[in-house]
Amino acid sequence: MPIIIADIMSTRVVTVEMDDRLTVAKEIFDQASFHHLLVVDEYQLEGVLSERDLLRAISPNLGSSAETARDLETLQKRVHQVMTRNPLTVAPYINLDTATRILLDNDIGCLPVLEDGKLVGIVTWKDLLRAYCEYRAQNQSEC
């Protein structure tokens, strides 16, 4: 029986609003162990903000002795200015192979999971790799 996304996705998603400032996203990433935030507007998925997107958008001098007021201003940008719009998504019943192919073919790190247009989860490349290793372990071959 093939593994489907519903079996491995994270259902506890963290979202930010499009008009939130990057300071909000930075605080979340600084406290969390994940690297993607889903961007919503009135509960509709609008984009994805990765930690990498955030780091590209803010000054590398933040928190250093070289930090200036101009560096701090980079944190005042809005999420919608930096996010990836119209992200690729999958349904919870999509199989592991299909989701993996989408990630690899598009060089992305996560897929929001939508069911009937409603955000129900997120699956990342780490989730896919973990599922692969668990499958291999169950079939008694090393990962």
Automatic annotation (TrEMBL):
<protein>
    <submittedName>
        <fullName>CBS domain-containing protein</fullName>
    </submittedName>
</protein>
<dbReference type="InterPro" id="IPR046342">
    <property type="entry name" value="CBS_dom_sf"/>
</dbReference>
<dbReference type="InterPro" id="IPR000644">
    <property type="entry name" value="CBS_dom"/>
</dbReference>
<dbReference type="Pfam" id="PF00571">
    <property type="entry name" value="CBS"/>
</dbReference>
<feature type="domain" description="CBS">
    <location>
        <begin position="83"/>
        <end position="141"/>
    </location>
</feature>
<keyword id="KW-0129">CBS domain</keyword>
<feature type="domain" description="CBS">
    <location>
        <begin position="9"/>
        <end position="65"/>
    </location>
</feature>
<dbReference type="InterPro" id="IPR051257">
    <property type="entry name" value="Diverse_CBS-Domain"/>
</dbReference>
